[in-house]
Amino acid sequence: MTAGWIFAAGLTHLMAACAAATLAAWLSVRRSVAGAAGTALVVALGLSAVWAMAVAATSVDGHGAHLWEAARNLAWLLVVYRLFSADGRHTLVRPIRPVMYSLAAIELFQILLGLLAPGYALGAGGAAVLFHMAIMFRLMFTIGGLVLLHNLYGGASASTRAVLHWPSIAVAGLWLFDLNLYTVAYLGGGWPDELAALRGLALLATVAALIPGLAKRRAELRFSPSRAVAFELVSLLGIGIYLLGMTALGKWLSYVGGDYARVFRFGFLIAGMAAAALVLPSRRLRGWLKVTLVKHLFRHRYDYRAEWLRFNRTIGRAGAGSGTLEQRAIQSLCDITDSPAGLLLGPNDHGELALSAQWQWRTADVPAPALGAEACAFFERHGHIVDLDQVRQGIDCQGEVRIVPAWLLCEPSAWALVPLLHFDRLVGVVVLARPKAARMLDWEDFDLLRVVGQQLASYLAEHAGQDALAEAARFDEFNRRIAFVMHDIKNLASQFSLLARNAELHAENPQFRADMLVTLRNSAEKLNALIVRLSRYGKGSGDAAVAFDPSALARGVAEQFAGRHRVLVHPGPAISMIGHAEALEQALVHLVQNGVDASADQAPVFIGVDRDAWGVRIEVVDAGTGMSPDFVRTKLFKPFVSSKNGGFGIGACEARELVRAMGGRLDVESREGIGSRFIIRLPLQPGDAGGSEPAAQIQQKVA
């Protein structure tokens, strides 16, 4: 080797030793950034630095350099094992332990061979045999290490690969350079000093590849190649074809021999360059390479098996802290796109979309009708996943600009709308929050979100069907309870009959008359209680509609609570409407009673009366405990479901049915810990056009 190559070898190895020692010193006090492999990395970098200094101090083929190289390889083998056993995959790591032990035994044998060989006088033939044996062992170690590295990386989970990406590249780069070095040495029958002089650059590249993985976050280091091509085909077939080609070329050159071998080597190099110059500019080849790279290295962002398993774990999770099915549905979609939060908008009774559930999105200000009836029709017709960033830019793919409301566009965290369709019927829409690593949605996101959305829609539809069956079962239970109520009525009727017969005989007895009054009073109280429990639902009063003042009616309702709770009335302008005053009064009593039950003793309940585009607007507002979106959507207006201990759960249901019977509608807005607002909208006259106002206009007025 010339003086220039000797100088270059010393310089590059000294630079590599400084870089490895510096990184080892930095990592020694920050071993936690590398997880369980932190200590092993420090040892491997330190031994690599010692090996590089030994090469710089002696030569690229020195006896000490080979010994330290074996120690270095053992340390990097330990790094590989610690990296891939840190995520708890014991079932995968345990079977490859024999391979690890075999590779370690190869390097230990190299150390033993290096220690014993200098003590024996070997001739030229013995030295050649020893050299080929050492090179063969080196080849076995590098090939086994690379195959082991690729298999372990291929079996790692998607989240673990984000951490293993850069360390795997670092170790693979070091061993790939050694593989080329040992292959040339084996084929050439001697140590290639010029190529060995560049090993310091390989160590420098290894140190440089480790730095990003130790300094950056996992999300910034995510790498998702296709397993089939990137690992199974490229690594195994690439190494095999390379070795086969190099071996065949070396055998062929050995047959040529003499001075012609060097000429053939340069001729082969020139022929390869000429072939590359002719083939690479081919448009067909470039197109094939582009499609192949996009398809196998960048196309499949998701590990579909892992995503499907995680989806099923999230949906099937049970327990106190698992949340409702709606919340788990949101989480399952958010996990796919790494969204930190999400909302579920479900259809209400008016064909609009209202907030049904939320997951980790406490700051979202969602109006009562979140999306109008036009949005429901759009999603059912197109099933289109809406990219809100494109809508903000004015890009209209299928008319989604018209159905996205202003509150979603003004919410900076809102990222995408995913419809949940079940047999072309909209079950809900999930609003995904923007992930921390912002990116554009592509076709793979759309396909996966669409399939998962259909699956979620089936789960939610099945859940709604089960709720309907449960409600029917509760009605059966109610009918059975009516039998007991009728038994009580029969007992009261028998008691009245007995009282009438005794009155014919003892009507003149003062003591009998006193007992009779007590019995009548108790019976009347029992009958009144039964009448309240057996009130009719949703049919209003059977009396004819009359003109009345809703403000005066509200004041009368407030007076009924005098002495029990403070109810304040804020009357609006003088209004005269035609309707069933008794039915409206009964609905207001139910709503005010709910507000009283939910409020503290000193917190008043407000009744407001005003006019709007509908006609009459009556609000019942309290500052009580409030209700969750899930309770408002699925339980508030269902009979026999109550948040109060001992409640029948029929007050809100009866109030809504009474309002509906008068041609109006009842809306509710509630926040947990803040309070609730019930809004009654009634036409001024029965059959007024205001009661059939389009849903889009209603949404604007509610907002």
TrEMBL record:
Gene3D superfamilies: 3.30.450.40, Histidine kinase-like ATPase, C-terminal domain
Enzyme class, broadest EC rank: transferase
UniProt-listed PROSITE patterns: HIS_KIN (PS50109)
Catalyzed reaction equations: ATP + protein L-histidine = ADP + protein N-phospho-L-histidine
SUPFAM superfamilies linked to this entry: ATPase domain of HSP90 chaperone/DNA topoisomerase II/histidine kinase (SSF55874), GAF domain-like (SSF55781)
Keyword ATP-binding (UniProt): yes
Stated name of the protein: histidine kinase
